[in-house]
Amino acid sequence: MMFSLRNSSSHPESFILLGIPGLENSHFWIAFPFCVMYAVAVVGNIIVLHVIRTDHTLHEPMYLFLAMLAMTDLVLSSSTQPKMLAILWFHAHEIEYHACLVQVFFIHAFSSVESGVLMAMALDRYVAICFPLRHSTILTPSVVGKLGAAVMIRGVLWVSPFCIMISRMPFCFSTVIPQSYCEHMAVLKLVCADTTVNRVYGLCVAFFVAGFDMTVISISYVMILRAVLRLPSGEARLKAFGTCASHICVILALYIPALFSFLTHRFGHHVPRVVHIMFANLYLLAPPMLNPIIYGVRTKQIRDRVIHACCGKDS
């Protein structure tokens, strides 16, 4: 592998993505489960989008938010996985400088969007359980659209400065990124300048976005729990808990690997690199793969329509 030399604008023409350092001899075989996970993510989310789009009875807040989540998952997984598979299978380690910055933008912007959509879904469950008679008047299609636009704009506005600040900084001679994709902190470590502002800004964005969303989600579920425990019927309580179980599983699938990856990048100097990189890959692939499976299995309306489409109208 040849290192790219810096051009006249003080940034390299390209970077070298190593994939999964320490497991180079196993790259070919590691790619297969990642490929299967990516295929499940793409097919599953496309099916969810198709079912919601074609069935007008599903044009309700819960399913509209689910459609937003599916679109976000498609973008998030597709921004990294094709390149990662090319690295693992075909040794295509080089990534062009601007393509790397685009990848940084999509990864962080749509991670923020995914977190925001999960927050909006928690609010939807709160309104549906605590104010069932007013649910359709509070969360109108217009309100749902505005919430979706707000989380998208938030992601773009918060993440854009990452790429702008990095693009104005000089890089060192080494262009090797010991990962399988371009991530903000990994690229920042190659900069030959003071990166204190970038690091502080990155921490502030991460804590503000994740902190705000997790706070709203936590408050929503505390209120939901209080409302559910007041229900007189045990069957009604079980049904209410069931409607929230899928969402809780999706939240855990996103935040646990995301927080692990974020914290080890900055503070986990003693965590083995292989463990960190594997979690970083799973953080971007596991939620997009699990979300359509969890909602497809747990949500009766979607499950019934998929079975109906697969088995035919007469079955």
List the helices and strands and how they pair.
Layout lengths: L13 E4 L9 H28 L6 H18 L2 H10 L3 E3 H34 L4 H4 L2 H27 L8 E2 L6 H5 L7 H34 L4 H33 L6 H26 L1 H12 L4
Parallel strand pairs: 1-3
Antiparallel strand pairs: 1-2
Helix pairs in contact: 1-2, 1-3, 1-10, 2-4, 2-10, 4-6, 4-8, 4-9, 6-8, 9-10, 10-11
Beta percentage is: under 5%
Q: Give a quick account of the main beta sheet: strands, pairing sense, barrel closure.
A: 3 strands, mixed
Please give the share of residues in helix.
over 70%
Query: Terminal Cα separation, in Å?
Result: 57 Å
Provide a count of the helices.
11
The main sheet orders its strands as 2-1-3
Shape: globular
Average residue pLDDT: 87
Q: Which runs of at least 5 residues are low in confidence (pLDDT < 50)?
A: 1-8
Number of strands: 3
H and E string: EHHHEHHHEHHHHH
Quaternary arrangement of the chains shown?
single chain
Structural class: mainly alpha
Question: Whole-number radius of gyration?
Answer: 21 Å
